[in-house]
């Protein structure tokens, strides 16, 4: 917390640097372009600090970075198009509560090594690109609390072998919940609350793991007349009148089951693999 000042451009001379982790400091100013000159940099985490300005193109063009986190920080600009062009090897991408704007471009589909994606609480306005379904390694997908529109792309069902956590809440999404979501066999969390979804809840969701936690409140979604959900939840009618409806719902399991903490599995596993060998860290 006592670290203050700016990031010196001389950082670019530390050619063996593999990690930059700056969290909870008083560092301010902009990111030096020389951060793009670090050939061995694989992790950059900038969180909870006073840094601001545009992310340098030189940093976005560093193809070795596998783990990138910008969170609770005043970085801005429309960087996603450039980022996705250069980052096909990216495994973790977290951009949350920043001033980074723009849309999610179709080129997101090139991130074929990505396991953890969180693009929440930014001034982005977009729709969900169908190319999300091309990221077959994705286990955690959080895109929430932004001014989006459009429908949930059915192509997300292509992630059936990997996707465990899907949070698309507070986006103003429209249309029906695609039945293909019922093909996500590994799903443990599905949060669709506070959108403008309509129609019937796909009965295929009832066939997913009984541990699935499902949030659907503040939409205009109903159960079909011949719903399979009644076979797995004795409180189905009252559950739909409450805020939470997982397969094993909060009413059945008790109020503690209503609180969900987003998965940190991707970040934890990444940390384990990167700390197994010596590295020079800033």
Largest sheet: 10 strands, parallel
Number of strands: 17
Instruction: Please state the structural category.
Output: alpha/beta
Percentage of residues in strands? 15-25%
Q: What is the N-to-C succession of helices and strands?
A: EEEEEHEEHEEEEEEEEEHHHE
Helix proportion? 10-25%
What is the rounded distance between the termini? 15 Å
> How is the largest sheet built, in terms of strand order?
15-13-12-11-10-8-6-4-2-17
Architecture blueprint of SSEs:
Elements: E1 4-5, E2 17-23, E3 26-29, E4 43-47, E5 50-54, H1 57-60, E6 67-71, E7 74-77, H2 80-86, E8 92-96, E9 99-100, E10 116-118, E11 140-142, E12 165-167, E13 189-191, E14 198-200, E15 213-215, E16 220-222, H3 236-240, H4 250-253, H5 265-274, E17 280-281
Parallel strand pairs: 1-3, 2-4, 2-17, 3-5, 4-6, 5-7, 6-8, 7-9, 8-10, 10-11, 11-12, 12-13, 13-15, 14-16
Structure, described:
The protein has helices at residues 57-60, 80-86, 236-240, 250-253, 265-274; strands at 4-5, 17-23, 26-29, 43-47, 50-54, 67-71, 74-77, 92-96, 99-100, 116-118, 140-142, 165-167, 189-191, 198-200, 213-215, 220-222, 280-281. It has 5 helices and 17 strands. The protein is α/β, with parallel strands linked by helices. Mean pLDDT is 81; it is low at 234-238 and 240-282.
Task: Describe the structure using short key phrases.
282 residues; alpha/beta; 10-stranded parallel β-sheet; 5-stranded parallel β-sheet; 5 helices
Brief summary of the model shown:
The chain has 282 residues and is an alpha/beta fold.
